[in-house]
C-alpha cells in the first residue's frame, strides 16, 4: 500500500489524529473514488470537502455552464467562472485545493444510456446525488440499486433539506420512500421556490460526511433513516424508514429491471 | 386524542383517516406525500381507509429536489 509522504502527514494531520481515521484510514481515503453527479448547491460543498479530505479520485458529472445566479450557493465556482463549463471550474477549484486529488470529468447529463458507463468508468466506490430534478434522482437510485453501488441522495428547497444514504443489501432505497417521480413541474423547484444558499452547504456537507464514513467503515450511516433539516426552526429529524416490500426496484416483486429515462426535467430551465 | 405528526403533538377531536388528516394539517400537495403510520408505509389507495388512533405517530415525507442539473 502507498506510504504517506511527509507533506500528506501534515496536510491531513487533523484527521489522521482521529482514532477512527489514522494513517490506515487516510490511505483508504487517498485510494477512494467518489462520483459527484451535479456540481451545484449540493455537489459544490461535497466536492470541496471530499477533495480537502484527500479522496484520491473525484468524478464530476455536469453539462451546464456557470451562471451568475449559481454563485449564491454553488461555492466551487467563482465570479470569474461565469460562462465556463462547471466541470472545468470544479476541476480547477479542486486542483488548487489539493493536488493529491485526480479529477475525472463527464461533460454530460446522466441518462439511462450513459449512467452505467459513468459509474463503471472508475468503478466508483460511492456516488453523491447532487442533482436538482426527479428524473435524474430516480435514475441515480435505480442505477445504484441495479449496479449495487452505495449512494447519498439529497434535496434542498427554501429553508429545508433532506438526505438518505443507500447501501446495497442493507437499506431501503430512495424509491422505497418515494415510489416514482412526481409529474413534471408538480413539485416546486429551487428556481421556482428559492433556496437559501447555505442549505446546500449543510446538506451537501452531510453527503460528504456519509461518503467519508462509508470509505472509512466507521460510525452509523443514514441507512434506513431519512434526515430532514428545517433551518427556520433549526430542527434536524432522523426518521426511520423501512424497506418497502412493494418497491418497484428493490421490493419483493421488482418491476424495474432496466434503466429508463423519465422525460420531465423539473427544474431550472435556461431562459 | 393526541397523535404525533412529524414529531409534533396534534390534538384531534375524533379519529380521522389519513386523507382527512392530510387535509386537516393542510399538507402541501397531499397527492405526492409519502405517509408512514407507526413506522410503516401506508399505500396511497388506503389513505381513506386507514384511521389514526390515540398515540399514533405519523410521518408525512415530502419530495425535495434542489442541487443542480447534472
Write the layout of secondary structure elements.
The complex is a heterodimer of chains A (271) and B (70).
Chain A: H1 6-11, H2 13-16, H3 22-30, E1 33-37, H4 43-53, E2 57-61, H5 86-97, E3 102-106, H6 115-121, E4 126-129, H7 134-147, E5 151-157, E6 160-166, H8 174-177, H9 190-193, H10 197-216, E7 225-230, E8 235-240
Helix pairs in contact in A: 4-5, 4-10
Chain B: E1 2-5, E2 8-11, H1 18-24, E3 34-37, E4 40-41, E5 57-61
Question: What's this entry about, in short?
Answer:
The complex is a heterodimer of chains A (about 270) and B (about 70). Chain A has about 270 residues and is of the alpha/beta class.
Overview features:
heterodimer; A: 271 residues; Rossmann fold; 8-stranded mixed beta sheet; 10 helices; globular; disordered C terminus; B: 70 residues; mainly beta; Ubiquitin-like (UB roll); 5 strands; 27% strand
Structure description:
The complex is a heterodimer of chains A (271) and B (70). Chain A is of the alpha/beta class. Chain A has a single domain, classed as Rossmann fold, CATH 3.40.50.720. Chain A has ten helices and eight strands. Chain A has an eight-stranded mixed beta sheet, with helices on both faces. In chain A, helix 4 packs parallel to helix 5 and helix 4 crosses helix 10. The longest helix of chain A has 20 residues. In chain A, 50% of the residues are buried. The C terminus of chain A is likely disordered. Chain B has 70 residues and is mainly beta. Chain B has a single domain, classed as Ubiquitin-like (UB roll) (Roll), CATH 3.10.20. In chain B, strands 2-1-5-3-4 form a five-stranded mixed beta sheet, with no helix packed on it. In chain B, a hairpin with a 2-residue loop joins strand 3 and strand 4. Chain B is globular, with a radius of gyration of 13 Å. The model of chain B has no long low-confidence stretch (mean pLDDT 92). The interface between A and B is large, with 56 and 21 residues.
